[in-house]
Amino acid sequence: MNDKSIIELFRIRDEQAIAELKLKYDRLCCHIAGNILSRREDIEECINSAYYDIWNRIPPDEPDDLKTYLCRIVKNKAIDRLKYNTAAKRDSQLSVSLDELAECIPDRRDDNISAQELAASISRFLRTQDERHRKIFVRRYWYGDSLSKIAEYFGMNEKTVATYLFRTRKKLKEFLKKEGFEHE
């Protein structure tokens, strides 16, 4: 079933919408949540919570891209769960990747920064990158994949992946400065 049909099922409040969403995207959701959380129970709870949120959000929300919409919700739920589980401990792979990204993205606590504008700028930047660099960046910072998993996926050395990411973050920081986003 295509995404528009699934969204229509949500709009008419047909419970089959959840089953279709789960059938189509459950593996992707498990991958995203699994890269952030380690316990199976937490992953399942996070995904079920995301499905529940989508049920409550559509309508009134009308996402243009159901897959991205769902992935964002799952990722945010998993991050919230990780924060809850670890409280002061900061030893997860996701914490490392988010710390890396924090070096080049301005602090959102600055009232002058709109999340939508920042996201649009990052998307514009990624469209300027070659396909391999863009995919490596997305695998690391969107899906939360480890360096070793990315290296295996692309048939590369881990150090090469780390170098690609370092250079891409450096370019992103410069791009964001040109876009008017000051860091520091």
Automatic annotation (TrEMBL):
* Record key words, sorted: DNA-binding, Sigma factor, Transcription, Transcription regulation
- Which residue range or ranges hold the RNA polymerase sigma-70 region domain? 24-85
Q: Where is the RNA polymerase sigma factor 70 region 4 type domain?
A: 131-172
Any GO molecular function? sigma factor activity
* SUPFAM superfamilies referenced in this protein's UniProt entry, alphabetically: Sigma2 domain of RNA polymerase sigma factors, Sigma3 and sigma4 domains of RNA polymerase sigma factors
UniProt signal peptide: none
Respond yes or no to whether keyword Repeat is given for this record.
no
Q: Which GO terms describe its biological process?
A: DNA-templated transcription initiation
Family, according to the entry, reads as follows:
Belongs to the sigma-70 factor family. ECF subfamily.
> Per its record, how is this protein called by name?
RNA polymerase sigma-70 factor, ECF subfamily
